[in-house]
Amino acid sequence: MAFLPSKIQKQLACVLLLVLSSTGIYFNSLKGSFQFDDVPLINSQWIENLESFNRSVKISSFENRPVLLWTYALNNSLGKNKEFGFHLFNLMLHIGVTLLIFFSVLKTSSFHRSFNNIHNKNPEESNPTSIWIFPFITALIFSLHPLNTDSISYISSRSSVLATFFYLFSLYLFLNLFNLEKKKTFSANNLILILLVAATMYLSLASKLIAATLPLLMSFWYFVFSRKDMEALWKKSWAYLFIILISIAVLFLLGDPWIYNAKDQGLELYGQLPYLLIQIKIIVFYYLKLFLFPFNLSVDSGMPFSSITEDPFIILAILIICGIVVAAIKSRNIWLLVGTAWFFITLAPTSSFIPLNDLAVEHRTYLPMTLGVCMAVGWGISRLYPIWRFGFLSLIIIPFSLGTITRNSDWISEISLWEDVARKNPSSSRAHNNLGKAYFEKGNLTRASYHFEKSIANIPKFIEDKFNLKNAEEFLSRKKNPANSNSSNLKIAAELVEPHYNLASIYLDQGKLSLAEKEYLKTLSIRPHHTSAKIGLGSVYNKKGLYEKAEKLYRQAIKDKQLQNGNDFFPLAHLNLGEVYGKTGKISLAIIEWEQAIQQDPSLLPAYFNLGTALMMQGEYNRAEKYLLKCLEINNKHEPALFNLALTKQKQMHWQESIDRFNNYIAVTGLRPSALTQIGFNYLNLNDWKNAQSFFEKSLRIVPTDMNTLILLGDAFLAQGHTRKAEEKYRIALNLNKDSGLEKIIKSKIKNISK
């Protein structure tokens, strides 16, 4: 590198250190799994691959974040559901953001130094040695800060990192548009840069709508660092850039009703002004506190909602913020002023007058930290004497690095993540709900039910009262128009519904039908058109033998789906409705429902099996074989399908084919007494008494008290002339059975032997 100019060498050294430090600190995040919202997001059909994305996603719909979705589709195209690839992409984006911070501050510092040299102002700030220190410290603090782990380790938070990357890229390109040392007229280079700025602005806005603040900050950035009056500014030809950028931003905002959608999530729950006031407290006592002391980081903050009348900390927070703003203005320090403005302006879309469902989320600070608090702190450290600067920076960097590495380990699995939340915030309903789901997926129903019960117990009282959860059945009965609850109520109650529904499902799996019924009813009291809850409640009634109630619920679920989607695409409902028809002897109706389920979901194995079994019972053996074979295409080790396929051959009196099928069944499943008995029965009909006897005896060695097998073995002995042995087996069977019908048959066989 000796052949390179000193300036380039310093840049490369800084870049290399930033890349290596970021990679080293976040290396263990690459082992993380998909979490929480990641799984349904990654498995969405519109981002299955790039082709699906191009077919399904409109790039003009900013509400749906098309650029963000494109990156997910790209990840899936490179490796479907490969956690490593998704995490690596997030890390690369974070490194890119870190480098853009460095170069943006460096560019602005150079620009500011030129201004000071021209106007003979503040010679200390024009020191060529210090110009490298400030951008590097700013970028390094941001790169290693533990508060960023939520954005980087959580795949669903990629939107914050991606939007920030293009946000800073747009700003950096914009910084190249003005230079006080060279007063140029409008040129082709200016036009290219303007187009690039507009393009990166679009990419940021289409990643996350926080980019709406970009035109304002660009304008503020120029005004502060150019120190030109308005009249001079508008005389410059490139000033029209602001008109273009602001116009683009307005069009983007009007193109999607994102503000109203955002308000829907929390407006009813909190209210607009109360939300703004609680956010002021959160900014000071949560976000800024975590920046200075990044300990006890949590996916679920546990920040309770409070009003200004009952919480003096809100008033204190207002005073603190006013003090920060006044101090930044009075300091007359340009970096403190810009950093303060950047922090509050970029935080405004999520922490001001637009009520969101979650009060405090760590990834909201990702953009505000970049050229906000990190830049302000970076400037402060860079002004210290070298020895003090090194010592102070070490006191920050070492614990920050260790904190980030430790925090990344919490994201390794869903259980480790939510166990961490539960330790730090034991009253979190969400933490226990997600722990319940994680344990349920592991097959640990005991731990799952424990955490679901804890989740429900921790539901805030004001929400519980709002939805009248203590008397769900009464609430349902007096609801005049449940369809009205489909708007904001659904969004507010989304996390409230889930623990009740999940707990009900656990109880259903455990056979606790009354408890399952109770929780399904509570779910439906919150969300009357929760179709899955209706299916679950129908299954409860199905197991209780209340078939009319079950049928009614399944039909309602199908109707709700039809109202929601314009069709009755609900294969599970058709499957379960068919089961009820089958149990009540309405086989023809059951077959119709199962055929409908298969039509809607060709991979629905239980529907194929049920169809095959029903058709076999009706004597339609060829059709039965068709569906049973289809079942085995999906799962070639499906035991009931293998058994019934062999049975269809037996019912057609294809004895040898049936034997072959049952032997295949045994080869797959291992020895089963029922299969051995059926093979013996087939040999009995082939008049192969010895083989029949052999298989019956093998079956009885496993289950010595099987009455039917004992009778058949007696028949085999009798066919061979072994009357004494035959009578012995008949009498054993007779002693085992008190059924009058079979008793009569057995006694008749014994009587015939006596004759």
What does it look like?
The protein is an all-alpha fold and 755 residues long. The protein contains 40 helices and no strands. It has helices spanning 6-26, 38-42, 50-56, 66-78, 83-119, 130-144, 149-153, 158-175, 188-205, 214-226, 230-235, 240-255, 258-264, 267-270, 272-292, 312-331, 334-347, 366-382, 386-410, 414-424, 429-441, 445-457, 461-466, 472-478, 488-492, 494-509, 513-526, 531-544, 547-565, 571-583, 587-600, 605-617, 621-634, 639-651, 655-669, 673-685, 689-702, 707-719, 723-736, 740-754. The longest helix has 37 residues, at 83-119. Residues 117-129, 254-264 and 468-492 have low confidence and may be disordered.
Straight-line distance between termini: 112 Å
Fraction of residues in β-strands: under 5%
Please give the radius of gyration in angstroms: 35 Å
Counted beta strands: 0
Average pLDDT works out at 82
Return residue spans where pLDDT drops below 50 for at least 5 consecutive residues.
117-129, 254-264, 468-492
How much helical structure, as a percent, in the residues?
over 70%
Find the structural class using helix and strand composition. mainly alpha
Q: Main β-sheet, in a few words? A: none
The backbone outline, from C-alpha atoms, is elongated
Number of helices: 40
Q: Which helices and strands occur, and which strands form pairs?
A:
Blueprint: H1 6-26, H2 38-42, H3 50-56, H4 66-78, H5 83-119, H6 130-144, H7 149-153, H8 158-175, H9 188-205, H10 214-226, H11 230-235, H12 240-255, H13 258-264, H14 267-270, H15 272-292, H16 312-331, H17 334-347, H18 366-382, H19 386-410, H20 414-424, H21 429-441, H22 445-457, H23 461-466, H24 472-478, H25 488-492, H26 494-509, H27 513-526, H28 531-544, H29 547-565, H30 571-583, H31 587-600, H32 605-617, H33 621-634, H34 639-651, H35 655-669, H36 673-685, H37 689-702, H38 707-719, H39 723-736, H40 740-754
Helix pairs in contact: 1-5, 1-6, 3-4, 5-6, 5-8, 6-18, 6-19, 8-9, 9-12, 10-12, 10-17, 15-16, 16-17, 17-18, 20-21, 21-22, 21-26, 22-26, 24-27, 26-27, 26-28, 27-28, 28-29, 28-30, 29-30, 30-31, 31-32, 32-33, 32-34, 33-34, 34-35, 35-36, 36-37, 36-38, 37-38, 38-39, 39-40
